Amino acid sequence: MYHGPVADDKLHEECGVFGIYGKEGMDISRTTYYGLYALQHRGQESAGIAVAAGGKIKYYKQMGLVSEVFDDSILESLEGCISCGHVRYSTIGDSHVINSQPLVVKYRNGSLAMAHNGSLVNADKLRGELEQEGVIFQTTVDSEVIANLVARKDRGDILEAVLETMDCVRGAYALIIMTGDKLIGVRDPNGIRPLSIGRKDGFYMLSSESCAFDTVGAKLLRDVEPGEIVVIDREGIRSFYYHGPRTNNLCVFEFIYFGRPDSVMAGKNIYMARRRAGVNLYRECPADADIVISVPDSGTAAAIGYSEASGIPFMEGLVKNRYVGRTFIQPRQRQREISVALKLNVLGDMVKGKRVVMVDDSIVRGTTSRNLVRMLKNAGAVEVHFRVSSPPVQHPCYFGIDTPTRENLVGANLSVEEIRDKIEADSLGYLSLEGLLEAVGESTGYCHACFSGNYPIEK
Amino acid sequence: MYHGPVADDKLHEECGVFGIYGKEGMDISRTTYYGLYALQHRGQESAGIAVAAGGKIKYYKQMGLVSEVFDDSILESLEGCISCGHVRYSTIGDSHVINSQPLVVKYRNGSLAMAHNGSLVNADKLRGELEQEGVIFQTTVDSEVIANLVARKDRGDILEAVLETMDCVRGAYALIIMTGDKLIGVRDPNGIRPLSIGRKDGFYMLSSESCAFDTVGAKLLRDVEPGEIVVIDREGIRSFYYHGPRTNNLCVFEFIYFGRPDSVMAGKNIYMARRRAGVNLYRECPADADIVISVPDSGTAAAIGYSEASGIPFMEGLVKNRYVGRTFIQPRQRQREISVALKLNVLGDMVKGKRVVMVDDSIVRGTTSRNLVRMLKNAGAVEVHFRVSSPPVQHPCYFGIDTPTRENLVGANLSVEEIRDKIEADSLGYLSLEGLLEAVGESTGYCHACFSGNYPIEK
Amino acid sequence: MYHGPVADDKLHEECGVFGIYGKEGMDISRTTYYGLYALQHRGQESAGIAVAAGGKIKYYKQMGLVSEVFDDSILESLEGCISCGHVRYSTIGDSHVINSQPLVVKYRNGSLAMAHNGSLVNADKLRGELEQEGVIFQTTVDSEVIANLVARKDRGDILEAVLETMDCVRGAYALIIMTGDKLIGVRDPNGIRPLSIGRKDGFYMLSSESCAFDTVGAKLLRDVEPGEIVVIDREGIRSFYYHGPRTNNLCVFEFIYFGRPDSVMAGKNIYMARRRAGVNLYRECPADADIVISVPDSGTAAAIGYSEASGIPFMEGLVKNRYVGRTFIQPRQRQREISVALKLNVLGDMVKGKRVVMVDDSIVRGTTSRNLVRMLKNAGAVEVHFRVSSPPVQHPCYFGIDTPTRENLVGANLSVEEIRDKIEADSLGYLSLEGLLEAVGESTGYCHACFSGNYPIEK
Amino acid sequence: MYHGPVADDKLHEECGVFGIYGKEGMDISRTTYYGLYALQHRGQESAGIAVAAGGKIKYYKQMGLVSEVFDDSILESLEGCISCGHVRYSTIGDSHVINSQPLVVKYRNGSLAMAHNGSLVNADKLRGELEQEGVIFQTTVDSEVIANLVARKDRGDILEAVLETMDCVRGAYALIIMTGDKLIGVRDPNGIRPLSIGRKDGFYMLSSESCAFDTVGAKLLRDVEPGEIVVIDREGIRSFYYHGPRTNNLCVFEFIYFGRPDSVMAGKNIYMARRRAGVNLYRECPADADIVISVPDSGTAAAIGYSEASGIPFMEGLVKNRYVGRTFIQPRQRQREISVALKLNVLGDMVKGKRVVMVDDSIVRGTTSRNLVRMLKNAGAVEVHFRVSSPPVQHPCYFGIDTPTRENLVGANLSVEEIRDKIEADSLGYLSLEGLLEAVGESTGYCHACFSGNYPIEK
Questions:
Q1: Taking chain C, what is the end-to-end CA distance rounded to the nearest angstrom?
Q2: pLDDT digit string, tens, across residues D296-310
Q3: Smallest CA–CA separation between D127 and chain C, in Å?
């Protein structure tokens, strides 16, 4: 196949979830559609919406962007009082509609829909145990494991079933579970993946990120807490808690790259954290230069912070093609450099004769970085000082992020000096973990295993 | 939605299955594609092929005709040594890709793919029991029930598991089960739905109908017997049997309408049985007429038989539009008569001034019949004697055929004379059940519950 | 590309046209849709409908079947008082939406839509002359040549322009021209391609074949005469005539294969002519046999006639797969025989031990014929006597029919005995031209150049 | 239709053109694909590529983005030595594949493909004159007018024909004309629409903007001059000139909004001009504020310039959803505010309690502007000073830009103070025309009719 994905050198989130508990006549499916639209950056492969009406669940899910999957007649056919939506990014190999979410199942106490963001570290073990008991699996997604557990443990009280399930599963999960008459939000006891509660006109919503609340005109109320189970139904909203230890280990990469800059997590605006990381980056890794530029769009907030702290003016030195689709026909070998050029181009007049600080949010493989340095040099930059507003990624993520294998993680194999040499920069500086944590705030703990190898949950 | 199905007044088969146990380099997926192509009349809504290679199962299924679902690159990606394919017709309401087959699952002893034709009478009960044990269901198809049972009973011996499953399920089923190294064919102990064994170049195949063997150049070996389990693997082909009572209750409607005329079931060619039914129809319900015509294409064989027996010449009086698609834009109320006219037109010169015997294979609702009689009369036919080469359909089918509700079954509500009046024919005659059974041959027993109410399995 | 057309061994019509002059609120576009549906056998590659409302023309055309190209919202957007529709079959190489029809153009006197069936013999010369005058051509269809001529000659009177255009163009053409307020039907002075007039509720329609009138509930009034120009507008229907010689040279192949059996052309029902051809075929080429079968569906009428004349019973010996789509994945070389088997299968019980007369309407290349003879022999037929209800095709058609090159026309290269040998039949008989002409009736003259080489128009 | 375009309050360019004169084996069609990819911002409705090989022209065009229209097999089928590509944006009403470009025609001297950016002011008159001479028009695009003129004037020398055509047509045009052996670039004598020449490995290319050269690894050589005709063929590259007056009237809006910031036109980098406009904007319309933000992405360069000149720090205050597709399901009336919220969101922490300068590149209707001011105020901005880096748009464009009708042009109907009031800003300032022209440089003249009403060509 020549139509390949537009490669980038980033880690990727795997999902976004959104749900509403409303009432008839509120355009529930349409609002869910807009909510998922706002979460599209968390997954572009498939989209789905399930709604409950009169105790019954209907759903539609398909491969594609939110704007491609749904049309007006589908949304019309999905009217209901409660909704549960999902967008999914997937790793190659399990890209099939069967794996799209929400997962909708019938079980002894009715129907439920489940939307999951995260990854279980003991999924294989649980699958194995369930299989030993005769369970069959039709998908490769963890939601199917969780749904089996909930169904088996539900003896009439879904809340109990969820609590018992939490005793079994280990890993990262932000879940929206919808039954015929309830909307339930669950966040794993370590709080690794985000989930927040919004309100509009007295009705509650759940979303991976608060930007979706802004989009639909709702207000962010608060985050679901680690280990908290939020049950929204006719009686209002109630909270229950996992009875084991609960800790704050929100994925710090949500602040670095995954989250939309306008979202608020752990009480902190993501953009502001990124800018602050840029400030700290300058303090740790100053450079003597004429201008600060960013690798757009993800490096811009940190670049602005770097500029503020250093007094070196922030300029745009790279221009992004706003129409890069999800796929394009891959260049042949001899045109390989076009891959980067299709997405980014240098503003020659801006960088010519300048000593340039280029700020990116992270380096994963390092391939794009070298191309960018070369492009700047070819355009006349006299020095290129590469600055990264996070530490080197050295460890794989087991909690739902698609990390390259260790041999492809440049930070796992080379020293900073070796990386600098490889990407042909004049200097290279990474933000320290401490600097990063200072930027994202002390209000909570974070999972930073990809940098530190310090996993909050053992595999 | 304005794009509705092209309505006809027929009962509908719900599925066709096809599978091969071959070896590498045999174009297994491609041959399966041609086999399903030959079985397309058994289901036009979705199509799927699973293949096993190196113990692993890959599959592709989608809504649409066989020719629409697959292209060459998909077939290339499905190369393997064993295959299991399916075409599906579905009732409105559960038309979703999630319900398409083969169903492919992982369970404790590996993977299996299952293609099912038929319907279980105790599916709801089994679902309920399984749900009580914690099972979740993602589809509305019986295959999921069966797959759950097999998985739960499989303690290392799939054959044992299938046998035990047969103890639980009651109803009609012709199954193809594919594991990583076996192809298994199963037919219910009453033998309601057909399944046959073919061979080509020393390799075995399974198919709902023998016409698929002819298409791919194989030979029909024999039918799978009622209650027989055929296991095809590296050691060849072996047969096992359900240990309860086994009877012959092949669905007689396969001979009347479902089966392709060139297929052989129960040792009897379907076309020949239809022609014989026409002979018997004349003997029971003679008419004094100038020509015999058929409602094409399904009434033609019986019309020819009627002509042979009566000496009244067979003529074509109705012409079928060969390009009627599966859907078309429905006429508005005031153009309702166009629905039939789009499909069938009268040959006026042939029927003008003639006393016409019109033979159809069955009458279900009776709506089309009246339109046809009127068309003939409008074209100048002086008498129209309607003859039906099967008895009145009076009872619903519980074994996989989509029967209208009782109030829409004209044979269940009106006497023959009342039906004659309703369809405005000058006379009306149905073949008796005895006449039908004589035509299909005494070699085996049949299920004729839709005519007799005599169900081989209690609901 | 592996998705190739379903090859058959037939000549192919290139187009069908249909138009209505009605009034607002008559569902003009919808009725045109049904009319084109009924003409789908005349062209399956593209479809288009133009309508005039308030003097303006809107249109929609696209690649695909009528049922695929249009949906309800498109038809809604095409409401008007006059319509002009087209279905197109095309030769490989000019299959592009730019070539689909109707051709809609603006010119000095407003807009016009043109739908054309046929082929001009002097198209290249006319193109050359027009190009010399500075005309540019955007398509490869003759309609563009005709539209250019009409536009250049229209000095305020479209009728005059059409008459003058008829002085220039030579060849076969049945045209529907729609202006903002008129529907015009034109048939070439030799009357090679068919065009007929229908009426419903006082409104007039034009159609390539009368079967479309039956479908939409209209009555066939009469054929447009060779060289006649029918102008339908607010003042009713008027006829004008080409002032040069006008002769009857209706393409005889319309009766043999192109036309739908329920259509009436030149006052004669096509089916009846085909049956009569079968009668004559027996008289000229009798056979001593047990049964007469046809190559379905096109050979059936003649087979029935052969049976009537001979007293040998007509039987169905070949079964057609009713779901053969327009395309399927081509078998690889080693599976080549599947191509025919996907479409036709033998009824072994019917032919086994029998001496069989097999009737087809024509033989073009002869490739399928041999396969069918072999299939019959393999199934146990003891003799196969091939009978063709038309003469050998020996000459290419210049009037709109896609004939193979001479080296592929078996009738142009081999004697009847050589063909018999090639197709491995026990005997082979073609109907004589005289026998054919007797069958289609003496009421008019015919073009039979493909048999006789006697072209009504020099190239 | 509920799937509407994602509305914005901007003027829209209508086309981009790209062509190469190369040789076999150079992946001409693929390189053209990448070139069009880089010009995608100039038109998203349809895309097309024509190539010449062996004197013959092949082409493919279709509705959709470049990445949607082409796949590898189409590009393979389009290999040639010369190419001519086009992307098109279209006004509602003429969105049909028939209007997509390049326009490919046959005429007396062979074939030619034509890709056009711009609009003729005398197109209707020319159409009328051509129609009087009998010409028919199949599209509504000006290319068809130009192609007719060229064809009629070409008596063997295409260059002469182009020169003569330039005597007739008045308006804006940047043309790429491809014959079987030549690539020709033409720019109107006023130089309104841009066209530039690039070179790679000794081969020449033409492109609307230089960013496409960067993308494919070529170098910008120079702009085609106003009234220049560049002929590229086997003999190299030669220039010819329109013999009438030639002036510099490049559309100044290319610098304000249309052009990609990394392109160079009239020797000036677009980004640098935008930044300079921001500097001048501050000088003309200072504001006492805490931060400068932009309406992303088009206002960012000017905002940075404003920040530089004022010393007020540049911050990002609005976040853009990077996955806004071309279409989405329109919100119902009661959810209207979602339209803007789907695209842009405020960074509350950034603007809260701040006096904000918000810079946009232009205001057309003003509807989005008010929404943005409200969003900022709702987020806590204490003052919002709106600054626009171009003058009020007061006059329609006749040269290829889709301007709203006069009543929708807020600048044409309201004073600056009235607009300020309408958009609810605390202050509003527009850059003067003088300030704009200073920013884009004195090197050339510009067309600024949309601001000044001073049209370089009379209508």
A1: 35
A2: 989 999 999 999 999
A3: 9
Residue-level pLDDT at B5:
40
What are the strands of the beta sheet with C291-294, ordered from one edge? C291-294, C355-360, C383-388, C427-430
State the total domains in chain D.
Answer: 2
Question: Using CB atoms within 10 A of its CB, is residue C380 exposed (0-12), middle (13-18) or buried (19+)?
Answer: middle
Q: Domain for residue A175, yes or no?
A: yes
Q: Assign A223 to helix, strand or coil.
A: strand
pLDDT of res. B317: 96
**Nearest-CA distance from C160 to chain B in Å?**
38
CB contact C133 to B (< 8 Å): no
Which residue of D lies nearest to C156 if distances are taken between CA atoms?
A: D132
Write phi, then psi, for B346 (nearest 5 degrees): -85, 145
ipTM score of the complex? 0.91
Across the B/C interface, how many CB contacts are shorter than 8 Å? Answer: 173
Output the domain CATH number for residue C421: 3.40.50.2020
pLDDT value for C4: 37
Same domain, B149 and B218: yes
- Are C225 and C312 within one domain? no
**pLDDT tens, A61-88?**
998 899 989 998 899 999 899 999 999 9
Residue D150's closest CA among D140, D132, D138, D163?
A: D163
Q: Average pLDDT for residues C343-367, to the nearest whole number?
A: 94
Q: Do A207 and A289 fall within a single domain?
A: no
Asked if residue C398 belongs to a domain, the reply is yes
- The C-alpha angle B256, B259, B262, rounded to 5 degrees, equals 110
Beta-carbon separation of D321 and A67 below 8 A: no
Instruction: Quickly list H helices, A99-194.
Output: 123-132, 142-153, 158-168
Question: Domain of D210?
Answer: 11-247
Q: With respect to residue B265, please indicate whether it lies within any of the assigned structural domains.
A: no
Q: Do chain A and chain D touch with ≥3 beta carbon pairs under 8 Å?
A: yes
Bond preceding residue C189 cis, omega within 30 of 0: no
Nearest by CB: D152 against C108, C134, C137: C134
How far is the C-alpha of B176 from the C-alpha of B184, rounded, in Å? Answer: 6
Residues of D in contact with A325 (CB under 8 A): 65, 67-68
Check whether residue C113 and residue C225 sit in a common domain. Answer: yes
Contacts of residue B354, Cβ cutoff 8 Å, sequence gap at least 6: B289, B290, B291, B380, B381, B382
Choose, out of C76, C92, C130, C136, the residue to mutate when testing the contact with D (most D CBs < 10 Å): C136
Domain boundary among D212, D247, D282: D247
User: Is the same domain home to C239 and C283?
Assistant: no
Task: Please determine, for residue B406, whether its predicted confidence score (pLDDT) is greater than 90.
Answer: no
From B247, B264, B293, give the residue that closes a domain.
B247
State the nearest Cα–Cα gap between B23 and chain A, in angstroms: 25
Provide, as residue numbers in chain C, all residues whose Cβ is less than 8 Å from the Cβ of B347. 261-262, 269, 271-272
B235 plus B302 within the same structural domain: no
Query: Are residues B239 and B286 located together in one domain of the fold?
Result: no
| Residues of A whose CB is below 8 A from D331 | 30, 34
What would the pLDDT profile of B335-386 be if each residue is shown by its tens digit? Answer: 667 778 889 999 999 999 999 999 999 999 888 899 999 999 999 999 999 9
For residue C4, being part of any structural domain is answered with: no
Asked whether residue D228 falls in the same domain as residue D293, the answer is: no
Q: Give me the pLDDT at residue A452, please.
A: 95
List pLDDT tens digits, range D406-453.
888 999 999 999 999 999 999 999 999 999 999 998 767 999 999 999
What pLDDT score was predicted for residue C2? 30
Give per-residue pLDDT as tens, B230-276.
Answer: 999 999 999 999 999 999 999 999 999 999 999 999 999 999 999 99
Model confidence band, residue D281 (pLDDT cutoffs 50, 70, 90): very high
How large a percentage of chain D has pLDDT more than 90?
80
CB within 8 A of B108, min separation 6: which ones? A128, A131, A132, A134, B151, B154
User: What's the CATH code of the domain at A73?
Assistant: 3.60.20.10
Residue of C nearest to D129 (CA): C108
Say if the Cβ atoms of A131 and B104 lie within 8 Å. Answer: no
D15 classed as catalytic: yes
